[in-house]
Amino acid sequence: MSSGWKMTSLRLFRLFLRWCVTLALPFLLLLAGARLLLSYEFLGIEYRRPGFPADPYGFTTEERLEYGLEAISFLFSAEGVEELARLRLPREKCWQPPAAASDCPLFKARELGHLEDAKRILKAGFTAAVYCLVFAILCTLAVRYMPIVADYRSVVLSGFSAGLMYGAYLTLAVVAALAVFAAAAWDRAFDTFHEIFFPAGVWRFPYSDSLIRLYPEQLFVDAAFVIGGFATASALLLLAALRLLERSRS
Known about the structure:
The chain has 250 residues and is mostly helical.
């Protein structure tokens, strides 16, 4: 195999690797931020922070934590929605018509369907993240053990480094664009997000439903701010690390 052909192949692979890393990084950073927020700790901070809206229908902070964690646990478990369907509210906490208050499920059928949709979306997102991780591991092994790649290790590593740098800049651009959109028209941004990921007409609920009582709009405002902040900070730290690495090599 001629050295010219190998160099051309490695350069094409470098370009492919650079674009893969560039496009994957914003997705991975935003997903990592979302995963950090889907936790008991984030709910506890939100529910207890000054200014967070209380439940006008009577959930205490402790009850919000208990019931809110049930839904989050479902999103990352292998259990079916039947487990959530079995949960019931005390009659004094129920805001269904009096005739139905004797059997008051924590989540109604439409709420359970929405949680199932959210679980499918999260599963797809984290599955894609695993594929990205596997691809990165395979590239690392190729650089380490495959002779044709190891001979041109610097070419491959430069593609990976360039992808990280461009991906960090792309992350900052994506966060900035989303921040401007959300600041200019939060309601439209919130609706657009749900219209993209959820079937039409199945993600709006009365304020008395448990999903709204547990996860009011203010929680999503705060979550968007924290996810954007996490992705921005991660991208800036990555750019700083790449610059330090470049200086150490020069």
